[in-house]
Amino acid sequence: MNGDQTAPSASDHVPSAHGRFWPLALGSIGVVFGDIGTSPLYAFREALGQTGETGLSHGSVMGVVSLALWALILVVTVKYVIFLMRADNRGEGGVLSLAALAQAALGKRTTLIFILSCTGAALFYGDAVITPAISVLSAIEGLRSVPALGDHVTLPVVLIASITILVALFAVQFKGTGGMGRFFGPICVIWFLVIATLGVMHIVDQPQVVAAFNPVFAADFLAHHGAAGLFVLGSVFLTVTGAEALYADMGHFGRWPIQASWLSFVLPALALNYLGQGAMVLNAIAGAHGRPVENADWFFLMAPEAMRAPLVLLATVATIIASQAVITGAYSLTNQAMQLGLLPRMTVKRTSETQAGEIYLPQINLMLAVGVVFLIGIFKTSSSLAHAYGLAVTGTMAVTTSLAFIVVRHRWKWPLLGALALIVPLLAVDFVFLGANALKLLSGGFVPLVMGGAIFVLMATWVRGTELVNAKAANDTPMLEDFLPVVSASRSLYRAAGTAVFLTSDPDHAPGALLHNLKHNKVLHQKNLIVSVRTADVPRVAEFERASVEKISEDFTRVALTYGFMETPNVPKALAALRKKGIAFDIMSTSFFVGRRTVVRGANSKLPKMLNNLFIWLTRNAANPTDFFHIPPGRWWRWAPRSPSDAASPDARSGLGWRLVLGGPRVSG
Fold it and tell me: What is the pTM of this model?
């Protein structure tokens, strides 16, 4: 019902753009930059560890610092902050929002857009599982740098502490982030000020490190390190993980607050910290007088010994905030995917009466929690987990750039050469990082790919299965216009007072619930609304554009409700607003009829057996449509089989539901 993407909208509503600038900028620091802001905990250390050298050298340090700085400049600043944030879908960003924009530009959902959108969304879930695990692990491992605690912080202690923190974080998700969310911004401001200060403290010892802004150091390092340089490049990419959040969270904070926060505060703080870590290593090399200097946890070693325990505490809080941002992003992405018909309906609970974006999805929360605990148990350290990180993110970035080409070419109407001149260099950078991270495939990079692949198969199966079900139902039910004259001419029907609302995904055919109400109860209400819910290619639809009404007979009215992919449908509220269009609606005298299909595999099914079973399982476990559409309790009827035996019987005709056989000969009732 909610998989239609045919309804356009002319609304230019961008909710975050009308708020106050500085509070939004502060809020973006706490939410948008949490992931990328905690990368200094492990990114520089891991990159140096991939050089393959027995002892760290001046050239390697300068090369790694230069690569980190230019990754921040090219990937985050140029690609995301300057370019992609201009490719917004009425204020919203993110891979699915961009896919909807590209789809609207082409006028249809092509196979390419479908594959790209599903791939980008599926890989995001892999990132959402790894980010909390590696962030919190790296923070807790910092306890080893505290002299009084170092000998006591064993691997089991790190694992137990990390799992305890993350399990507690997932356990409180149902309460929402409204209470603590107001502290995220100020805490992250303190975090960025601290890491910038730590960087400056060491830059003054080795000011030559500032020369790393010269890209020659990066190019020289890659030219002289061969395959090791590619491994380093894969780890350097850890410095820009979280860049997708810049784009995906644009709808919550607005383009200008995010851009201002990044350019004036976050980027300088990150650059100073990476320069400071590099300066500390250079200082250690100079003080070693030719003895080899081994890699270490440079981030925490930058702090004076007396300040390391408080730094670990601050880092832990910062990683929790970063994890929360990714978890919330997974909820938002799932809600978009459901609205766009890429996933079955799931339970969506609102955790705030005032903030529409604050939602909680129990199924996704459980999936992420299990995945995070599983990864920590398997990889055990942040260094090992770093091998799994990056591949999913680079894949998502490549998908985003590919979708951006469609937008630039077909929506912005750029000439082909101009579009290629812009996109090809950006895509080349993406593929360089993608290739570098692909080297980690066997050492852990396969993990997010397996996760993403499984979710892609799930999405593709759901979309294809839904298409087959809808086609079968449309083929086996009469057209509404042909059916209504027969109903109107019947004298055997009892005319009940009030209004009946029949929810359907296909407003052109007679709803199954209507057919069975007439067949079994011989009842027709005085007023009947055939209601369908469609999803537009825009994030939000203005209230005055919400409903289109078509009077098709004295007794029947067809209503199409249109929602944006960022909205959650509320059917009773939308129907109540129809009073302005001359349709009386009284919730106390209205009954909602919701059909439920029992889907089984037919002999001639067009889906392979395994995918068929998967689709049937998804259908049976989809959320109750009455909850999803906010149908009030006690006001609805569901047509379903009377018993499991009815549902299992190939010739079940006695149930009140209807049975749809994929590829089979009929839809029976």
Answer: 0.84
